[in-house]
Design a protein that fits this description.
- The protein has 191 residues and is mainly alpha-helical.
- It has helices at 2-25, 34-54, 59-76, 81-96, 103-116, 145-151, 157-162, 173-187; strands at residues 126-128, 134-136.
- Helix 1 (2-25) packs antiparallel against helix 2 (34-54), helix 2 runs antiparallel to helix 3 and helix 4 packs antiparallel against helix 5.
Length: 191
């Protein structure tokens, strides 16, 4: 399945390339850039075809790098709520079968919960404060977050946050928040 592995790696590489270009020009942090959205949608469509034909691309099928590329594509398919939920179910099944690390569905579950407006479980989804310092999005039962993180193989939250640097904040935060809320409704995360 070297061809399948190469396809997944190429999709993930394109995602990274466009993200780096948009970050370098400063437009990545102003909202969901149309170029980034287009890459994410194309990649999700390609991964959906792979899922239909092969199931979740586990390391025994596509190697560790290919499997992680598939996870990244699912994680970035933020404009596709039904697809991300499908991927979560498949990732959980693969973890149950011993094929993948538990942190992969944990991170995707947190992302889905955040977009749905629910508290996350593992504290993996970060958002910038008004000065650009990344902080965890709302966490359910924060007193147990470290226990949950340990259970899925994630480092302690304080270690994760210590490695973060400031990110640019939107120049017009109110506009950004309005557009984000409208996007959440438009793509189906919120009703």
């Amino acid at each position: 399945m070297n061809e399948l592995r190469r396809e997944l790696l190429a999709l993930a590489t394109e995602d990274s390339r466009v993200r780096q270009e948009l970050a370098a020009e400063g437009s990545l942090y102003e909202g969901y850039h149309p170029r980034m959205e287009a890459v994410h949608r194309r990649n999700a469509a390609s991964l959906a075809t792979i899922l239909d034909e092969h199931g979740w691309p586990v390391p025994s099928l596509v190697g560790p790098e290919g499997a992680e590329a598939a996870w990244l594509i699912a994680q970035h398919a933020i404009g596709e709520p039904a697809f991300q939920r499908r991927c979560l179910r498949l990732l959980q099944e693969a973890v149950g079968a011993g094929d993948l690390p538990a942190w992969q569905p944990a991170m995707l579950e947190d992302r889905i919960r955040m977009f749905e407006g629910r508290p996350q479980l593992y504290g993996t989804q970060l958002e910038p404060d008004h000065e650009g310092w990344l902080r965890p999005y709302l966490v359910e039962n924060p007193a147990r977050v470290e226990e949950r993180r340990r259970a899925v193989g994630l480092e302690p939250l304080y270690v994760r946050l210590a490695g973060e640097q400031r990110v640019p904040v939107p120049t017009d935060r109110k506009r950004f928040e309005r557009e984000y809320e409208a996007w959440l409704h438009r793509v189906g995360w919120r009703r």
